[in-house]
Amino acid sequence: MTKSELIALLASRYPQLAVRDMDLAVKTILDAMTQTLAAGQRIEIRGFGSFSLSSRSPRIGRNPRSGEKVMVPAKQVPHFKAGKELRERVDAVYLKEQSLAAASATK
């Protein structure tokens, strides 16, 4: 789902609110999350998951075009860990689809 699809979904669920307001709300939330991670803090949304930063140490990489060795510096990268409720809901949908596929394959 893209940001514009999320805004459209929210606008359809809440027709009393303007699309412009939904756009501003989504952008504000994403900006706040970006600023929080950039400040080195952790974000936890109960039932959904948590965002944190993981450290990657410096390493020697390879330029795929030329094959030349390149020094890749250390960096911080965002990491998402799904919450228990999200994992269970995704697994339930997956298992349901698998059982439907198995049932149709046996016919």
From TrEMBL:
Gene3D superfamilies: IHF-like DNA-binding proteins (4.10.520.10). It comes from the Bacteria. GO terms for molecular function: DNA binding; structural constituent of chromatin. InterPro entries: Hist_DNA-bd, IHF-like_DNA-bd_dom_sf, IHF_beta. SUPFAM superfamilies: IHF-like DNA-binding proteins. One of its GO terms (biological process) is regulation of DNA-templated transcription. CDD domains: IHF_B (cd13836). Keywords: DNA recombination, DNA-binding, Transcription, Transcription regulation, Translation regulation. GO terms for cellular component: chromosome; cytosol. SMART domains: BHL. It holds the Pfam family Bac_DNA_binding. Signal peptide: none annotated. This protein is one of the two subunits of integration host factor, a specific DNA-binding protein that functions in genetic recombination as well as in transcriptional and translational control. Heterodimer of an alpha and a beta chain. Belongs to the bacterial histone-like protein family. This is Integration host factor subunit beta. It comes from Candidatus Paenalcaligenes intestinipullorum. The lineage of its organism: Bacteria, Pseudomonadati, Pseudomonadota, Betaproteobacteria, Burkholderiales.
